Structures are given as C-alpha cells and as structure tokens.
C-alpha cells in the first residue's frame, strides 16, 4: 500500500480533489470529517473539550465556531485543543488504514499535514494549489468569512510555496475541473500500479 498525504492551504480546492480520488475508487481518509464526528453529538472528544474549554459544548456537541474564534489568536489555547484533537484523529486514521490494508493506494486528506507533523506518516505527498487571487476569492465567498479571519487562518498555515516545495506532487486547481481531474487520474495511474507491484 502507498499512503498519499493530500494537503493544501485554505481555499485551494483540496476537498474537490479528495472527492475526485474517491470517485476513482481510492479510499480517502477525511481528517476534517473525523474531527466533526469526534466533536459532534456524542462524539468521543466532547467531554474532554468541555473539561479544557468550559462552555464550548452543548447537546449538539462542540460549538466549533465559538471555539475556533476563541483559539484563533491564542497560540497556547490552540496547542491545548490540538493536544486533544490530534491523538483522536490519529486513532481513527489507524483504524482506516487497517480497514483498507489490501488497497494499493489510500489518500489521507489532512489539511495541516505539514503543520501537525502528519507528513512523517505518509509515503508520498500531494499538495493542492491555486493562484493566490483565486484562493482569496474562493475563501471570501464562504459564509461568515472576513478578510481579517482569512489572514488569521493563513498565518497559522505553512505558506503555499513552501508546501509545494516539500511535495512529491502538485495538483493545480486554478484551471478547469476537467484539468484537475486529469491530473488526479494521472497521479493514480502513476502510484497505484507501484503499490500493487
């Protein structure tokens, strides 16, 4: 099995690319979806987060928007939150890998692959990238997003140029969906036979 770490900064199109891998039959581990599940109603991390950040949970789970605003400008609070979340995600990742052990290729879709050290646990890395003006346009079109919040998020992410420099593969998303899909299918053709052989 080859494990491909898929990452990219906010607004680069990583979720779209992950869906393209899934459409081609490649198992995809979605770290963001796992975090939502762990923090949702009855989630495994809800009690621990409430213990560390009182008032941040309800019967619906963690109030993610409120918690995000609280930790965004506070590095110490963010580190405390990550110390709870990252081990939970790692446990789910290990279950995913065990379940898909016979697959020649799996994708680990991890937004903070470099920032959180997840790059050490993958065989190859693909970075999804778009020009800065396209990234900005995509992000600012999101509900509730502001230019200030966008800049604050970017400040906690490794710069796109550095991610691209550290990647084994770059998947550009500034063109058409068909062009991006072609890049994804080419990458699968490159990696899956090697994994199988």
Oligomer: single chain
* Cross-sheet strand order for the largest sheet: 2-5-1-6-7
Number of domains: 1
Gross geometry: globular
CATH class: Alpha Beta
- Average pLDDT reading: 90
CATH architecture: 3-Layer(aba) Sandwich
Low-confidence stretches are none
Q: Beta-strand level of the residues, as a percent range?
A: 5-15%
Helix and strand element order: EHEHHEEHHEEHHHEH
- Which bin fits the share of residues in helices? 40-55%
Instruction: Give the end-to-end Cα distance, rounded to a whole number of Å.
Output: 9 Å
CATH superfamily caption: P-loop containing nucleotide triphosphate hydrolases
Query: Helix segment count?
Result: 9
CATH-assigned fold name? Rossmann fold
Total number of β-strand segments?
7
Radius of gyration: 17 Å
Structural class: alpha/beta
Largest sheet: 5 strands, parallel
Q: What layout of secondary structure does this protein have?
A:
Layout: E1 2-7, H1 14-23, E2 28-30, H2 31-39, H3 46-52, E3 57-58, E4 61-62, H4 64-72, H5 75-99, E5 105-109, E6 124-129, H6 132-140, H7 147-155, H8 160-166, E7 169-172, H9 177-196
Parallel strand pairs: 1-5, 1-6, 2-5, 6-7
Antiparallel strand pairs: 3-4
Helix pairs in contact: 2-5
Describe the structure.
This protein has one domain (2-196): Rossmann fold. Helix content is 53%, strand content 14%. With 197 residues, it is of the alpha/beta class. Helix 2 packs across helix 5. The protein has a five-stranded parallel β-sheet with strand order 2-5-1-6-7, with helices on both faces.
């Amino acid at each position: 099995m080859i494990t491909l770490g898929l990452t990219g900064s906010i607004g680069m199109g990583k979720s779209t690319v992950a869906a393209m891998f899934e459409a081609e039959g490649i198992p995809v581990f979605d770290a963001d979806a796992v975090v939502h599940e762990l923090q949702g109603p009855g989630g495994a991390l809800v009690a621990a987060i409430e213990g560390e950040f009182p008032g941040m949970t309800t019967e619906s789970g963690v109030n993610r928007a409120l918690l995000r605003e609280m930790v965004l400008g506070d590095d110490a609070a963010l580190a405390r939150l990550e110390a709870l979340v990252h081990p939970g995600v790692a446990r789910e990742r290990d279950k995913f890998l065990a379940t898909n052990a016979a697959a020649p290729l799996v994708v680990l879709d991890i937004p903070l692959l470099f920032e959180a050290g997840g790059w050490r646990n993958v065989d190859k890395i693909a970075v999804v990238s778009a020009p800065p003006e396209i990234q900005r346009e995509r992000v600012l079109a999101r509900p509730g997003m502001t230019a200030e919040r966008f800049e604050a998020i970017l400040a906690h992410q490794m710069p796109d140029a550095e991610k691209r420099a550290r990647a084994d593969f770059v998947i550009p998303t500034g063109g058409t969906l068909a062009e991006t899909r072609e890049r994804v299918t080419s990458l699968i053709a490159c990696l899956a036979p090697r994994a199988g052989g």
